[in-house]
């Protein structure tokens, strides 16, 4: 219900029920609200099997893991399908240094 109330999500951390089905459910639930460049993290991924890597593959994002930690993450890039059917990444133009 909370996700339905949010206009967008820039950071998501999964650290609840550590099962493949639950992690998959949470990732798919937040996916529509993730903004371009959102950070998605999941802890205790040794218990959730291929759920996080499968999500990463589906959205075309590399999984980042620090050493042997089971905390993993990725940066979400909104994907759009071009008229020719190829996948392209839609991104905001980079901000100038003066606006940071």
How would you describe what is shown here?
- The protein is of the alpha+beta class and 100 residues long.
- The protein has one domain: 3-Layer(aba) Sandwich (Rossmann fold).
- The protein is 25% helix and 27% strand.
- The protein contains 3 helices and 6 strands, in the order H-E-H-E-H-E-E-E-E.
- The protein has helices at residues 2-5, 20-31, 51-59; strands at 9-14, 34-42, 64-65, 72-75, 79-81, 87-89.
- The strands form 2 sheets. The chain has a 4-stranded mixed β-sheet with strand order 1-2-4-3, with helices on one face. A two-stranded antiparallel ribbon has the order 5-6.
How much β-strand is present in the residues?
A: 25-35%
CATH class label: Alpha Beta
Rg is 15 Å
Distance between the termini: 33 Å
Q: Please identify the structural class as seen in this structure.
A: alpha+beta
Main sheet record? 4 strands, mixed
CATH third-level topology: Rossmann fold
CATH homologous superfamily label? Vaccinia Virus protein VP39
- What series of H and E elements makes up the topology? HEHEHEEEE
Number of domains: 1
Shape: globular
Q: Biggest sheet, strands in spatial order?
A: 1-2-4-3
Number of helices, where a helix is a run of at least 4 consecutive DSSP H or I residues? 3
Give the mean pLDDT. Answer: 83
What proportion of the residues is helical, as a percent range?
25-40%
Low-confidence stretches: 80-100
Q: Could you say what the CATH architecture is?
A: 3-Layer(aba) Sandwich
How many strand units?
A: 6
């Amino acid at each position: 219900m909370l996700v339905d109330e949010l206009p967008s999500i820039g950071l998501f951390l999964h650290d609840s029920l550590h099962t493949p089905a639950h992690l998959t459910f949470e990732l798919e639930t937040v996916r529509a609200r993730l903004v371009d460049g959102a950070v998605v993290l999941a802890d205790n991924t040794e218990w959730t099997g291929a759920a996080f890597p499968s999500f990463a593959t589906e959205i075309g994002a590399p999984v980042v893991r620090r050493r042997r930690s089971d905390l993993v993450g990725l940066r979400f890039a909104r994907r759009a399908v071009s008229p020719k059917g190829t996948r392209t990444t839609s991104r905001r133009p980079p901000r100038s240094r003066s606006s940071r």
